[in-house]
Amino acid sequence: MLKDFVKPVEPGEEELKKELKEAQEKLASYQMEIKNAKLPVIVIFEGWGAAGKGSVIGRVIKSIDPRFFRVRTMTSPTEEEKRYPFLHRYLLEIPEAGKFTFFDTYWMNEVVTQHMEGELDENQYKHRVRSINTAERSLTDNGYLVMKFFFHISKKEQKKRLDDLMEDKNTRWRVNDDDLHENKHYKEYLDVYEQYLEDTDRAAAPWYIIDASNKKWAELQVLRFLNQGIDTALKNHSLAAPIRQNIFQLNPIPKLSEVSLDDKTISKEEYDKELDSLQKELRDLHNELYRKKIPVIIAYEGWDAAGKGGNIKRITSALDPRGYEVHPIASPEPHEKSRYFLWRFWNRLPKDGHIAVFDRTWYGRVMVERIEGFCSENDWQRAYNEINEFEKELADWGAVIIKFWVQIDKDTQLARFNDRQNTPEKQWKITDEDWRNREKWDQYESAIDEMLQKTNTTFGPWYILESNDKKYARIKALKIVVEALKKACKEKA
To answer: Is 322 found in the same domain as 395?
Structure first.
């Protein structure tokens, strides 16, 4: 892309000035349309050192009301940021619906730098590229406009600009060793940049190469592409995104109606004995997890009154409180609803060596949001694959993923509902929504069966906890968690 880049014809000074003014006004006029359409816009600036990315960002944003944009510079990751998945710190910065975020470098810089310095081998580099392509495609499928610009200048032009900056004591600080190293090894960097651009140039989020030899001309090129992208996105915004074919290995799992419940019981004596033994083992494993920096994600879904809370309590009682967090997931807050549905879960991931327990999860998209009409059919149909991709990214990071469906029958739920309704100290546990959801039991059961079938992957398996007897379900969950953690610790020497 860079090696065969042909410079576009630069207009004369008067024509450039005239077209630039028109392009700025056009971008300004798009603001209300973007807001009304709830179109989130991600604009990524990459390129050679001293190519003028910062100054062009400054010029472009002058056309936009400052209430509708943010500018972010993604520097090298801190030690704390390295304890999360690669995509984590980038996805947390995505804009809300109807707003812009401009990035002065995004994930390209980190990947290319680490690849050049040998921190990423070829396989690791390819995995990062796959992660980026998947993330960008997922964002565009969820209604984001992603615009990516690479500012291109020659080695000679870069050297001249670096020398000019170095000569002035007030601008010398803007030149660092990386810039000088890049210019000295221009050809090697050109090869790596070329490869990255080709690897991440996709129809949903293509690269635009900018001739950055002149700042005003560079600004006009950016505005031309940006305005075209916004115009197309606004026209396409109401159209449904394609449903992606699943590419992950799925394991068979029984339908809920096939799960036997009444024979899954345990005596109090056996329960007390097993509980004590398993919690001691889990306590020791937690220390090993921390030492080996293994992240753990335990996800709970299940019927209302199935016993999720008591189950979670028996697991967390064995853990060091400094090393875990329980996330009760309710309806999304306004700032969460204005971003794509997985954003609030990326925001709650544990760092390595820690455990995150989710009391309800991202699977709400294919259950309650589907049944109650809180999202479109296209949204929840796409979500199966998006969820599998999300969990695969976490598994590749090294996370242990354990997903529980807590199962009870309809009669047991009714008995527990009545008990809560008639016991003053338990009444806070029962709501009108619980009763409404119960009326849709058959609809939910059908949706749950589909969810289990389409997301029971090798890297993120589902476990059904038979919970007519809560004690039985608690012991089964503890056994599953202990075995999964023992396996992970053994595999990571």
So the answer is: yes
Alpha carbons 439 and 435: distance in angstroms, whole number: 7
Cα distances from 489 to residues 126, 145, 285, 387, 434, in angstroms, run 26, 41, 8, 25, 40
Tokens found for residue 167: 């000569």
User: pLDDT category, 91, cuts 50, 70, 90?
Assistant: very high
Which residue in 362, 448, 461 sits closest to 402, CA to CA?
Answer: 461
Helices and strands in the chain: count of H runs, count of E runs: 19, 10
Read off the pLDDT of residues 415-438 as tens digits, 9 standing for 90 and up: 999 999 888 888 888 888 889 889
Round to whole Å and give the CA distance between 386 and 32.
30
Residues 196 and 321 in one domain: no
378 & 476 share domain: yes
* C-alpha torsion sign, points 263, 268, 273, 279: positive
- How many domains in the chain? 2
Task: Point out which residues pair with 70 in neighbouring strands.
Answer: 101
Helix (H) or strand (E) holding 452: helix 441-455
Q: Fill in the amino acid letter for 249.
A: Q
Q: Is the pLDDT of residue 270 over 90?
A: yes
353: its two tokens: 């060596």
**CA–CA distance, 175 with 165 (Å, rounded to integer):** 7
Q: Is the pTM of this model over 0.90?
A: yes
Cβ neighbours around 167 below 10 Å, total: 9
Angle at 101 between CA 225 and CA 384, to 5 degrees: 95
Structural domain that includes position 375:
261-491
Shared-domain flag, residues 423 and 358: yes
* Partners of residue 325 on adjacent β-strands: 356
